[in-house]
Every structure is written in structure tokens, then in C-alpha cells.
Amino acid sequence: MMAPLKPGDLAGSLRIDRVLGQGASGITYLATDIQHHERPCVIKEFAPAHLAVRKDDGSLQALEARSFAKGLEAFRSEISSLATLNHPNIIDLVNYFEANGTGYLQMPWYDGEPLHKLLQRGGALNRTEVLDLAIPLIDALIYLHERGLVHRDIKPANVFITREGKPLLIDFGARGTSGSEGYAA
Asked: DSSP strand E in 23-132: where?
């Protein structure tokens, strides 16, 4: 696993608060946007442990420059496709930027929890609860498919439920990054 940025480190104008999730190719953080009224947000860092190492200054150093550049370009390209989406049940993408020798995706912070945590705590959902979640999610998938996009990683950990009960599709499986806990404090 890649060593994450530490609380207080910067990624562009975003101050890292804590790690929310980590996968083979990326790390998701709760951060604070210090240029926009100290607003909380979520950022996903392209940080493939097999292609880079974290230096003492927080930046990434590619171990295999060509492969790292190719992976970063794929990350950037996928974000470009997703940035055009506008659906109430698909996570919004706020910004893409590069800092620390890698790329970052900035998303809004939502209060709530991933579906897998809700299921662990409360057990199985009843029929009405399933329909309340499934119908908007199916609509979001239809929206994606009509645009030639596929989620690639649908599972309870990648369905985020806001405190208001709204389901959001998150973590499109871009590079196998994990961040399903990255949308709530």
C-alpha cells in the first residue's frame, strides 16, 4: 500500500484532514478547501503503489515513468468522461487538478454512509427500502448506459446513502481505487 498524505499536508489548495479509503491504485481523503470558505470535500488521489512511492515532501515519484504516465492519463481521461454527467444519483465531480506529482479528483462531501455500512449495522433491507434505493440507481445506470458509460464496480460499498436517504453511485472503478467511505465524516 502507498503511504498516504498526512493530516495537514496540501494537495493544491486542499488541506488533508484524514484518509477515508485506500485501494491498490488510489487513496481517498476527507479534505478542506482552504480557498473556498474552509469547505469540506473529498479527494481521490491517483497513487498506484506498484508504480510510485511517496517521497518525504508528500509528492509521488514514479518507479516506472511510462506506466505511471499511462495510468495517470487513463485516470484523467475517465474523469473527463464523467465530468459531463448530470444526474441526481451520480456523484458530482467538482475539479481535476495535478499536484504532488500526480492527479486528484475533487468531489463534494456528503453526510451519510455507504450502503455496506448501513447493511452491516441494520441488517437486510425490506422490500420498500430496496425499491427506494433500486429505482433511482437503475435510473442512474440507464443514464450512464445511454451515454456509452459503464460503472464497472457496482457493489454496496459503492452506493452512498445521504442522511436524507438519497442513493448516489460513487467510485466508478476507474483504477481499482477504494473510497466508498469517502463521502461522509
From this structure: 26-33, 39-46, 52-54, 60-62, 95-99, 102-108, 112-114
Q: What amino acid positions are annotated as catalytic residues? A: 153
Q: What's the CA gap between 94 and 113, in Å, rounded?
A: 20
* Residue 125 scores a pLDDT above 60: yes
First to last CA, the chain: 23
Q: How far is Cα 53 from Cα 114, in angstroms, rounded to an integer?
A: 29
CB 33 within 8 A of CB 121: no
pLDDT in tens, 70-120: 999 999 988 888 888 999 999 999 899 999 999 999 999 999 999 999 999
Phi then psi dihedrals of residue 87, to 5 deg: -140, 140
What is the tens place of the pLDDT at every residue in 21-68? 898 889 999 999 999 889 999 999 999 999 999 999 999 999 999 999
Task: Answer yes or no: are the C-beta atoms of 28 and 19 closer than 8 Å.
Answer: yes
Beta sheet of 159-162, edge-to-edge order: 112-114, 159-162, 167-169
Residue 173: pLDDT above 50?
yes
Single out the residue of 125, 64, 70, 72 nearest to residue 101, CA to CA.
72
